[in-house]
């Protein structure tokens, strides 16, 4: 039995001056390397296809925002002095990414800021209206005049035209700015 095993090992292992090599492994190694290379090429091709040729699916949305008088998000008033700097400007923006043209209304509201923000509880003091195509952004200035001492909240609500109801409806989108008005 030992003699049979040693003949088997002699066939599998060839001793050379550089070390021991497997004679029968060369073909298998080449097959494995070629298989790995083919798999890598296929995976690479799939990744290229996914990255460059599949369309990015985006979910439709509408955004409403406000900016300071310089069209920045940095210098919003936190405190105003009645009669001195209680009149200021904001920029309001609406971005339509709803895959369709929509009529929008923006309502500006003001309250004491003490309660929960409720789109039905306060009358609007200004309104603006515009039709926006898909991908269009509308930015416009709004002048705010604070006349009430103490806490104040400016709410900007977005409404859209509902053809079924034949009226503008609240979209559920709003932003607000709270500030304190003090006496000089």
What does this structure look like?
This protein has 184 residues and is of the alpha+beta class. It folds into two domains: 2-53; 61-182, Immunoglobulin-like, CATH 2.60.40. 22% of the residues lie in helices and 47% in strands. The strands form three sheets. The chain has a five-stranded mixed sheet with strand order 4-10-9-6-7, with no helix packed on it. A three-stranded antiparallel sheet has the order 3-5-8, with no helix packed on it. Strands 1-2 form a two-stranded antiparallel ribbon. Strand 1 (13-16) and strand 2 (19-22) form a beta hairpin. The longest helix has 29 residues, at 25-53. The protein starts with a helix and ends with a strand. The relative contact order is 0.17.
List strands and helices in order, with pairings.
Layout lengths: L1 H11 E4 L2 E4 L2 H29 L7 E7 L11 E3 L5 E11 L4 E10 L12 E9 L4 E9 L4 E13 L4 E16 L2
Parallel strand pairs: 4-10
Antiparallel strand pairs: 1-2, 3-5, 5-8, 6-7, 6-9, 9-10
């Amino acid at each position: 039995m030992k003699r049979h095993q040693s003949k088997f090992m002699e066939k599998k292992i060839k001793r050379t001056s550089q070390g021991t090599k497997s004679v029968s492994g060369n073909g298998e190694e080449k097959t494995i390397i070629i298989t790995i290379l083919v798999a890598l090429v296929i995976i690479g091709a799939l990744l290229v296809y996914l990255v460059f040729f599949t369309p990015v699916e985006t979910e439709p949305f509408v955004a409403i925002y406000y900016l300071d008088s310089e069209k920045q998000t940095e210098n919003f008033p936190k405190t105003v002095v009645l009669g001195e700097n209680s009149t200021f400007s904001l920029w309001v923006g609406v971005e339509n990414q709803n895959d369709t043209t929509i009529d929008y209304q923006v309502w500006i509201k003001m309250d004491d800021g003490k309660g929960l923000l409720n789109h039905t509880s306060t009358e609007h003091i200004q309104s603006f209206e515009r039709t926006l195509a898909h991908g269009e952004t509308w930015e416009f200035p709004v002048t705010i005049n604070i006349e009430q001492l103490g806490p104040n909240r400016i709410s900007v609500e977005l409404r859209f035209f509902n053809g079924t109801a034949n009226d503008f409806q609240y979209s559920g989108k709003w932003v607000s700015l709270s500030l304190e008005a003090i006496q000089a």
